[in-house]
Structures are given as structure tokens and as C-alpha cells.
Amino acid sequence: MEALCFTPKIKNVNTIEKRIESFVKLGQYLNSFDIEHSDKVKRAIAFNPWFTADFISSAFKGISEMFLTKEALTTWIGDYQVPVTTSQKTVGIVMAGNIPCVGFHDLLSVLIVGHRAQVKLSEKDSILMSLLITELQDIDNYFTTAIDLVDRLSGFDAVIATGSDTSSRYFEKYFSFVPHIIRKNRHGVGVIFKDDDKPALQGIAKDIFNYFGLGCRNISKLYLEEGVELSMIFEILEAFSEVRFHNKYKNNFDYNQALFLLNRDEFYSNDFIHLRHEKTISSRIASINYEYFKSKTSLVEELQTNKEAIQCIISNQVFDNINCVPFGKAQSPHLWDYADGVDTIDFLINI
Q1: In the CATH hierarchy, which fold is given to the domain comprising 187-314?
Q2: How far is Cα 218 from Cα 36, in angstroms, rounded to an integer?
Q3: pLDDT beyond 60 at 179
Q4: For the structural domain made of 16-184, what CATH number should be given?
Q5: 12, exposed or middle or buried, with CB in 10 Å at 0-12, 13-18, 19+?
Q6: I want to staple 283 with a disulfide (CB 3.0 to 4.6 A). Which of 140, 161, 220, 300 is the partner?
């Protein structure tokens, strides 16, 4: 009697090395992406006027060069003990849409450790994020089942949600029954010392105006050592004077000027940016808050007091062992520069 032969079912094995290889290919795709002639980019700009071709290009470049290289990915994930055979969990991701592809790092984090991503895209950034996801699925069909785009999260084992201070309170309550990371509003702050030379400060304009200042890493407040002249700041910011031709930005500039005058706020302005003397961290669009400090000691105390509102500190000087981002690099984070200082990979490994 002929023996029966059974062929064992082969699981869809996808190792971390294979996933890294796929993300490297996605980086190569983005690095050569034709922004100017892409219909999807044109649709994204038409749908969300805060997205411009230049800023979309900047976002794609940042993702491809800072995130999706083999060196960056292997260095990043090499610091963790990621199980060879991860018990795959479903992680819900509620993405923000304030700047192009801002939710990509969360998606990358979930997928790189071997979990399944259930994604609620932001309406403001659905076109570009869908573009990246579709290309990733074309590169490796493993991601066809590993990524699920939904209108409403359900059946998830953990959640990463990003929103405003208001929405975060809702998220905290709604997702309280599962492990979660909930992100609120945070901002970048810049620190300028009187002995900083002008050439070294040129990058500050980029940190303020990239993405029209809408990113959580953009500078919303400047701490100036006594003796720093505002005239120098205005001179440096001239590099981004073309923002005054953007309709939505200019409307915000005009509205804020009227509001500041009505409130009798102390502020200075040119024709595209307001510098308002204000203690709070969060600033309005087309304006930057500023405050003078007398000593590094008083500055550190102030930063510590406001740490829950600060995403990153941007300065060309190192002081009191505070980790600072150099001017011009605020919107070029490494993979391990986690939002709100919460280690996403450690969270995902341990859910």
C-alpha cells in the first residue's frame, strides 16, 4: 500500500532581516520619487493646502535618509532583544496629520518588531500615507495582511494614538483597557546664548518655518540670554520670507496681528512673523513666543517646569547635561528620537 504523503503547511515567515530589507527598498523608492509630476502629491496638496511640494519632498527625504537605510535600521533595532518569533499582536495606530507622513514612525515601529498594524489615518494626510503603504505592500506582500486601514479601531491588543490635548483625554479613557501610548501637544523650544555667532544660528529659520511651524518639533518659543538682539533674529528669519505668499499662513499672520494689538500684547513683527513676549510654550501660527533668561541655572529651572510641554530643545550649545538638537536639525530626528521621550519599541516588545 502506497504511503500517504502530507505536505506541511508553510507559515508566512517574515524575519526581521527581511522586513529591514523591505523598508530599505521603500527608502530607495522615496529617495527617487518624482514629487513634481506625481498626481497623488498634487491631490494631497489640493486636499490639504498646508502641504506643499517642498515640504512633502522634505518629509520624504527625511524618512528615506534618517529612517530607511540599512545602517539606521540595524543600529536602531540592534539595541533591543526582539524575539525571533514574535507573538504577533494587533496594534491600533491613530495617526496625526499636522505635517506630511508624521505617522510613519509609529507604523514602522509596529511592523519592524513583527506586529500587525491597524491604522486609522488622519484625513489631513490620508493620500501620502496610503501612497507609502501601497508601495510597501508592493515591495513585499507580507505587509498586505500586516497592515489594515480602518475607519474605526476594533479588536486591538494595544494602541498608539496621537492628537491634541483635548483628544488625548478622550483617548486615555477610550483606550484605558489596553496597553497604550497617548501623545498630546508638545513643542520645540530654541535656546540662544549671547556668545552664539550669527552663522551658527542660520538653521533656526528652518526649525521655525519648516512645515509652517506645525510640527511638534518646530520651535514655538525662543529662550534668549539677556543681550541677544531681536533684530538679529529677524535678520536670520528673512531666509523664509516667502511664507508670506502662502494664503493660509498669511491669513493667520494677519489675524494674529489684530489679536495681539487688541490684547495689547508686547510683540514685534515684520511682514511674515511675530515675536511675542510671552511665557507660555505654545505659540500661534505665524508667531513665536520669546522670553529672556539671566543665567543657565534659571533657564534649566524654567525648562524643567515646562518639560511636559516640550518635545525637544534646540541649541548649538550643551548645558547642564541637557540633550539638545543642533539648530537646523529639529525636523531631522533619528529613529531613536522618540516622541514625548517614550520608547516605542520597548513598549511594543513588551505588550
Answers
A1: Aldehyde Dehydrogenase; Chain A, domain 2 (3.40.309)
A2: 25
A3: yes
A4: 3.40.605.10
A5: exposed
A6: 220
pLDDT (0 to 100) of residue 272: 98
Per-residue pLDDT, 112: 97
Alpha-carbon distances, residue 296 vs 171, 198, 276, 309, 320 (angstroms)? 37, 20, 22, 19, 8
DSSP code per residue over 37-78: T-HHHHHHHHH-TT--HHHHHHHHHHIIIIISSHHHHHHHHT
Q: For residue 224, give the 3-state DSSP assignment.
A: strand
**Residue 33 is which amino acid?**
F
Under the banding of pLDDT at 50, 70 and 90, the label for residue 86 is low
Question: Residue 176 and residue 140: Cα distance in Å, rounded?
Answer: 34
Q: If DSSP codes are grouped into helix, strand and coil, which group holds residue 313?
A: strand
Return d(Cα 43, Cα 95) in angstroms, integer: 19
The three-point CA angle 20-21-26 to 5° equals 95
Contact 252, 284 (CB under 8 A): yes
Does the pLDDT value for residue 18 go beyond 60? yes
